[in-house]
Each structure stands twice: as structure tokens, then as C-alpha cells.
């Protein structure tokens, strides 16, 4: 029957119909077998935890969809920090006791290379110099920041900074820095009570900002013009990116031991883990009016009442990572040897994942928001309806052309 109908259509109509039938078959197949959330063997849909494993020397891989550990990469050397390349192809792990950065192939989950660093590498930041991938490493034992060319896999520069640099963050060209055509690297120097600012294009330290209390960490959201610095004194201090000055104290928690912070790219909120209280403090962003590299703020910054909320977990939170779409949060709990997975919107604990060891850092790869079953059905149904309409229009068009051709023949 299908062959008879196709023979009656003009050649163009038959080709269009065959194409539509093929597309329809693919859509129906999609309905029958929806795309799972399982990881693909690389960084998407995965979280990486440095410091897990039996002896705390592993990079542990968590499947976000399955909510469980799916891999271990044995490293040793007291892993402290971890970061992913933008394409998720490699994970870079600072081995503080080995003075190296391990390059882990995220597809094969094996160590692809070892890069030399300064003494006691801890924090890591990824950047680009033109098209060349660059990794900056805070050498906490050498009072330096090492710049590594990842293509050549060699050190290309070393920047002297303050004493015991332990935190790094990159302020992008559009984040509100003084020069909108350049990026800046913020370095928290714990023992010199300063934050060093390195101009990425200039290749040198362009500012040294006094920050009392011993800065231990720093995070810079992509917008807002503010860097947030955690200190050993239990404070979170806001720095203006446009003029390299202290704006004020955002939060003060006496006795707090703050870990590695992260931000929600959707809301701009800052997540601050505190090992002492066992909680994660969630802060609203400081509002800076004016500035953006044009000579400082036009009005005093607005400090909201903080914290916006407190997520009580226990287990000695040491690091936080928020997925790019703001759906999920992961909290490394150092004393409990586990990672808490949170639903950011509902603030609910979704899972507690045992990773072993003493997790020091966590990071997530690209995580596209999952489409629910009903939503996926509606999308597929809309596609099918579109195909049916297109098929109908094609049939009508073919019949009209045939009718005109017959009328011309009779004439």
C-alpha cells in the first residue's frame, strides 16, 4: 500500500515523504528509548573530588545522574585542588606533597601527564593566552604563582606574590575589572594578609590589597564587580574589582574555618563552607553601583543582611561546587569522607555519597538540566505534529501541481 501511494506522487513528493517518514521514525524511536542521564565517560554530568579514596590520595569520580561513585584515579601526593579544562577533556589536580599537577584524562580516567609546579601547589585556575590554554597554580610553599602552558606542558612564568598563597580566582574582562579588555588573577596570601592582583595580559602583579585576618580563599562571580575573600579570622570581605579596594565585611563568623567557595551563576549567590559549624553559608551578592573599570563606584556598595540562608550538613564542609545551570550543589565533607549532593532550588539533600579519605576539593563538569519525562513527551509530540502538518502540506502541494499539469495537458 505504501509503495502504491509513493508511486502516485511526483518524484519531489516521494523524496519529501521518505525524508519525513525517516524523521518520524527517529522521533518515535526517541519516545520509545528516552536519553538517559548516565555519564558519557568524560566530564559532562560528572563531579570530581580530590582527596578521596582509602588513603586520601585519589581523584574520585561521581556520576551526577546515578548519584554514586563510578571511578577512582590513584594519584597520591596529597591532592589539594582540582579544576577542569573548559571542554571537560582533562582534570588538573594539584599534588601538594609532590610539587606536581597531575593531568587526568577524563575519558580514560588515567593520568596522562605530570606537570612541574612550585613548592606546595594548592589552588588552580584555568585561562587562555590567545588560543593557548594556560593553568595558574598557587604555590603555597614557595610564595609564588606558576603559569603553565598546557599545550607545551611547561612553565612559562613565575610570579612572586605574598606569603603562603592558598586561593586563586580569575576575574574575566566583563566582570567589572579596571580594564575591560584584560582579565585579572586574584591571589589570597594567607600569611601576609594581602591579596595580590596579577594582570593576565600584562604578566605582572598590578596591585597588592591589604586584607586583615589572613586571606585563605577567593571567588569572583562573572558579573557584579566584586571579589569575595574568606579569611582565617572568620570573615568574608568584599573587594571592588574596578579600583582594587576593600569595600567592607560581608559576613563575620567567629571561629569559622572557611573552605573553598563557589557561586551560583544564575543567582549570583556565594556558597561558603565552614568546617567548624558544619554548615554552608549562602550569601547574597553585594550591589556595586557604577564602577566597571571607570574609576570606582559612583555610590557606596549595598551590603544585604547575611547570610541569606544556612545549609546545615555536618561532616566538616571543606569545599563547594555548584553546577553551571544552578541545579545542584556538591559539598565535600572532609571529616566524614563523603560528598553531599543538594538540590539548590529546594535546598534539599538529595544524596550523601561516600568517597573515602579526606576530600579537599570538588568540581563539576558541564551539566545540562535534565528534561522531565512529561516535558520530553510534549516536545516529541510537538515535533510529530509539525511533521504531520508538513506531510499534509506536501500532499496538498503535490496534488495541486498534478492538477495544474493535467489541466495544461488537456488544453
The fold-level CATH name of the largest domain is: Methylamine Dehydrogenase, Chain H
**CATH architecture type of the largest domain:** 7 Propeller
Distance between the termini: 33 Å
Strand residues, percent:
35-45%
- Spatial order of the strands forming the largest sheet: 3-2-1-28
Question: How would you describe this protein?
Answer:
The chain is α+β, with helices and mostly antiparallel strands. The chain folds into 2 domains: 319 residues, YVTN repeat-like/Quinoprotein amine dehydrogenase (Methylamine Dehydrogenase, Chain H, 7 Propeller), CATH 2.130.10; 29 residues. 16% of the residues lie in helices and 42% in strands. The protein has 3 helices and 28 strands. The chain has a 4-stranded antiparallel β-sheet, with no helix packed on it. Strands 4-5-6-7 form a 4-stranded antiparallel β-sheet, with no helix packed on it. Strands 8-9-10-11 form a 4-stranded antiparallel β-sheet, with no helix packed on it. Strand 26 and strand 27 form a beta hairpin. The N terminus is likely disordered.
In short:
The chain has helices spanning 2-8, 11-32, 373-410; strands at 46-52, 58-63, 68-74, 79-84, 90-95, 100-105, 110-116, 121-129, 132-139, 144-149, 154-160, 165-171, 184-189, 194-199, 204-210, 215-219, 226-231, 235-240, 245-252, 262-263, 270-274, 279-283, 309-312, 317-322, 328-333, 338-343, 348-354, 361-364. The chain is of the alpha+beta class.
Per-chain topology:
Elements: H1 2-8, H2 11-32, E1 46-52, E2 58-63, E3 68-74, E4 79-84, E5 90-95, E6 100-105, E7 110-116, E8 121-129, E9 132-139, E10 144-149, E11 154-160, E12 165-171, E13 184-189, E14 194-199, E15 204-210, E16 215-219, E17 226-231, E18 235-240, E19 245-252, E20 262-263, E21 270-274, E22 279-283, E23 309-312, E24 317-322, E25 328-333, E26 338-343, E27 348-354, E28 361-364, H3 373-410
Antiparallel strand pairs: 1-2, 1-28, 2-3, 4-5, 5-6, 6-7, 8-9, 9-10, 10-11, 12-13, 13-14, 14-15, 16-17, 17-18, 18-19, 20-21, 21-22, 22-23, 24-25, 25-26, 26-27
Helix pairs in contact: 2-3
Amino acid at each position: 500500500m505504501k509503495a502504491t501511494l509513493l508511486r502516485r506522487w511526483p518524484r519531489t513528493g516521494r523524496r519529501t515523504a521518505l525524508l519525513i517518514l525517516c524523521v518520524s521514525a527517529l522521533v518515535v524511536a526517541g519516545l520509545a528509548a528516552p536519553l538517559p542521564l548516565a555519564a558519557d565517560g568524560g566530564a559532562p554530568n560528572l563531579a570530581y573530588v580530590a582527596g578521596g579514596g582509602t588513603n586520601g590520595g585519589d581523584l574520585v569520580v561521581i556520576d551526577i545522574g546515578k548519584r554514586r561513585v563510578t571511578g577512582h584515579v590513584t594519584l597520591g601526593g596529597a591532592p589539594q585542588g582540582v579544576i577542569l579544562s573548559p571542554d571537560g577533556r582533562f582534570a588538573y589536580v594539584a599534588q601538594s606533597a609532590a610539587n606536581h599537577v597531575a593531568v587526568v584524562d577524563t575519558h580514560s580516567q588515567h593520568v596522562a601527564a605530570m606537570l612541574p609546579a612550585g613548592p606546595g601547589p594548592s589552588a588552580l585556575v584555568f585561562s587562555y593566552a590567545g588560543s593557548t590554554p594556560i593553568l595558574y597554580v598557587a604555590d603555597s610553599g614557595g610564595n609564588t604563582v606558576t603559569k603553565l602552558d598546557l599545550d607545551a606542558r611547561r612553565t612559562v612564568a613565575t610570579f612572586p606574590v605574598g606569603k603562603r598563597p592558598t586561593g586563586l580566582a580569575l576575574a574575566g574582562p566583563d566582570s567589572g575589572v579596571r580594564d575591560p579588555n584584560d582579565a585579572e588573577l586574584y591571589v589570597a596570601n594567607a600569611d601576609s594578609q594581602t591579596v595580590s592582583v596579577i594582570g593576565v595580559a600584562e604578566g605582572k602583579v598590578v596591585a597588592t590589597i591589604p586584607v586583615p585576618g589572613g586571606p585563605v580563599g577567593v571567588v569572583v562571580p562573572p558579573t557584579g564587580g566584586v571579589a569575595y575573600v574568606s579569611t582565617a579570622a572568620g570573615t568574608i570581605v568584599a573587594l571592588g574589582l574596578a579600583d582594587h579596594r576593600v569595600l567592607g565585611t560581608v559576613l563575620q563568623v567567629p571561629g569559622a574555618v572557611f573552605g573553598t567557595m563557589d557561586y551560583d551563576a544564575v543567582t549570583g549567590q556565594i556558597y561558603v563552607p565552614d568546617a567548624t559549624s558544619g554548615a554552608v553559608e549562602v550569601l547574597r551578592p553585594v550591589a556595586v553601583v557604577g564602577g566597571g573599570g571607570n574609576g570606582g563606584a559612583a555610590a557606596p556598595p549595598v551590603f544585604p543582611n547575611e547570610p541569606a540562608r544556612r545549609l546545615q550538613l555536618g561532616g566538616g564542609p571543606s569545599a563547594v561546587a555548584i553546577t553551571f545551570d544552578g541545579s545542584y550543589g556538591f559539598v565535600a565533607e572532609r571529616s566524614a569522607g563523603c560528598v553531599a549532593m543538594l538540590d539548590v532550588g529546594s535546598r534539599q539533600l538529595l544524596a550523601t555519597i561516600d568517597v573515602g579519605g579526606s576530600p579537599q576539593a570538588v568540581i563539576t563538569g558541564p551539566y545540562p538540566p535534565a528534561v522531565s519525562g512529561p516535558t520530553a513527551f510534549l516536545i516529541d509530540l510537538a515535533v510529530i505534529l509539525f511533521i504531520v502538518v508538513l506531510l499534509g502540506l506536501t500532499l496538498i502541494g503535490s496534488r495541486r501541481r498534478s492538477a495544474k499539469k493535467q489541466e495544461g495537458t488537456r488544453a
